[in-house]
Amino acid sequence: MTFDYDLFVIGGGSGGVRAARVAAGEYGAKVGLAEESRMGGTCVIRGCVPKKLMVFASTAGAMAEEMRGYGWADAEAGEFNWDMFREKLTTELDRLERAYTSNAERAGVEIHHQRAKLADHHTVELADGTRKTAKHILIAVGGRPVKLNIPGEELGLISDDLFLLEKLPRRALLIGGGFIACEFATILNGLGVQTVQAYRGEMVLRGFDNEGREHATQQLKDVGIDLRLGLAPTKLEKQGDRICVHFDDDSSETFDAVFFCTGRAPYVWDLGLENTAVKQHPNGAITVDEWSQTSVPSIFAVGDVTDRVNLTPVAIREGHSFVDTVFGNKPRNVNHDMIASAVYLRPHELGSIGLTEEQARDRGAVDIYSTVFRPMKSMFAGSDARTMMKLLVDPNTDKVLGCHIFGPEAGEMIQLAAIPITMGATKAQFDATMAVHPTAAEELVTMRNPSRRHHPGTE
Ligand SMILES: Cc1cc2nc3c(=O)[nH]c(=O)nc-3n(C[C@H](O)[C@H](O)[C@H](O)COP(=O)(O)OP(=O)(O)OC[C@H]3O[C@@H](n4cnc5c(N)ncnc54)[C@H](O)[C@@H]3O)c2cc1C
Ligand SMILES: NC(=O)c1ccc[n+]([C@@H]2O[C@H](COP(=O)([O-])OP(=O)(O)OC[C@H]3O[C@@H](n4cnc5c(N)ncnc54)[C@H](O)[C@@H]3O)[C@@H](O)[C@H]2O)c1
């Protein structure tokens, strides 16, 4: 049987573009790709990239404050100009979109700038009704934000909207306590917006190491975010050009903007899955094996639509591994166990890899090397901000099981610590590493004695 393509990719985001580009450019496959919106997907257009640029923008006030502590007595950030920033952001995202498009096209990928759905196990149907056949189909359609199913939810915004605002709100509510809620609260607060964050739990960033979560929760309050814990909205109502939010403690308040940062769901709506035997998890995520293959041998899925670990580098690695395996004759699957990540808060980020202390304790014996200190740079300026570094070590093998850093540039630090930890480094190897002085990161190689031990059966 002959096909129009060797591979047809649905979705031009992190996972889809990498797979298409490598299959066509490196392995000579005939590749088609459909993207219904902008090439680059969530990360480039409405996620990691614009978010991180806004995090950078939001640090001016804190930097000025710190510099006043260094003798720049008149240092002031002044007024943030949203119009000017947004224009630069638009130009940058346009540039990135063009780069993603031209890199894929240069590799030989045929891009169809329209929506696609599955018609059968080897056929996709484009929005204009054209049908294309392919030996293999890759579903890389990502996820979409979900709002809470409460009255008036249509009045609330989602994360995509932050980057498109006509003007910054004077007072904003962020609902949620995950990655997006905490990063967006940090950004808006730093840009001068009166920021309220409502989270139903006791501590933000569920799933992270509890000590890291405590520091993050405290920092959100310390930087001036009005963090309301144990609180959830029940209803939104229009009040003039503002929004009145009712909460489950019977209080109500008005805001200029309300953002639902309450999670994302796999974007499987109208994808034609009913025309195939592709299996799904109860939340809609596409079920795949360790090779990213679905229950249909010709159809694969990578990235957020599979709801494994929803991060850009993971989607990219899954897409790359899929083409190495299927087109490059280099079978490669992805280990989802040791994945570093960072939450870009300010002034301190939270960087993590491996087991949390809680998970390590559940697993068995663990030695906990942990230190909390005031970093030299901010302490000199008069700040009380604390940095935390923690290594979790298996006392039987001496292997480092996890590392958690709450501090300035923790994202950069955890990326480097992730290399030896992924290689299976032992604590002794960390200790054998000469420190770089004076840095904050040197603590990772100078923590000599466990702060606490958890040795079940011997305690
Ligand atoms: C605000 C925010 C901040 C984030 N920050 C980070 C971060 O700092 N670090 C990090 O690692 N991750 C971050 N993420 C997560 C990261 O963006 C995702 O994990 C990543 O983009 C997933 O890639 P993907 O290829 O699975 O899907 P996506 O990048 O979402 O790409 C899917 C593409 O498919 C297209 N599409 C969907 N359906 C169809 C269809 N039927 N036909 C044609 N096209 C279709 C979409 O338009 C989209 O372009 C963030 C996410 C958000 C929302
Ligand atoms: N720095 C990064 O790497 C980064 C940044 C942003 C997003 N991301 C990725 O995007 C994903 C999505 O981020 P997110 O923040 O939307 O999701 P999340 O799962 O991290 O957080 C969702 C939040 O919504 C709350 N929530 C859910 N249902 C609720 C309900 N019924 N009532 C009240 N609260 C409710 C949860 O308690 C949680 O705090 C992340 O899991 C992550 O994989 C990564």
UniProtKB/TrEMBL annotation:
Domain FAD/NAD(P)-binding: 5-319
Residues annotated for FAD binding in this entry: K52, D304
SUPFAM superfamilies xrefs: FAD/NAD(P)-binding domain (SSF51905), FAD/NAD-linked reductases, dimerisation (C-terminal) domain (SSF55424)
GO BP: any one term: cell redox homeostasis
Domain Pyridine nucleotide-disulphide oxidoreductase dimerisation: 340-447
Binding site for NAD(+): G176, G177, G178, F179, I180, A181, C182, E183, G263
Origin: domain of life: Bacteria
Cofactor: FAD
Entry coiled-coil feature ranges: none
Gene3D superfamilies: 3.30.390.30, FAD/NAD(P)-binding domain
Cofactor comment: Binds 1 FAD per subunit.
Keywords: Disulfide bond, FAD, Flavoprotein, NAD, Nucleotide-binding, Oxidoreductase, Redox-active center
Gene Ontology CC: cytosol
Active site: H437
Disulfide bonds: C43-C48
Single Gene Ontology MF annotation: glutathione-disulfide reductase (NADPH) activity
Entry keyword annotation includes Ribonucleoprotein: no
Transmembrane segments: none
InterPro entries, A to Z: FAD/NAD-bd_sf, FAD/NAD-binding_dom, FAD/NAD-linked_Rdtase_dimer_sf, GSHR/TRXR-like, Pyr_nuc-diS_OxRdtase, Pyr_nucl-diS_OxRdtase_dimer, Pyr_OxRdtase_I_AS
Family stated for the protein in its record: Belongs to the class-I pyridine nucleotide-disulfide oxidoreductase family.
Protein name: NADPH-glutathione reductase
Organism: Paracoccus homiensis
Lineage, broadest ranks: Bacteria, Pseudomonadati, Pseudomonadota, Alphaproteobacteria, Rhodobacterales
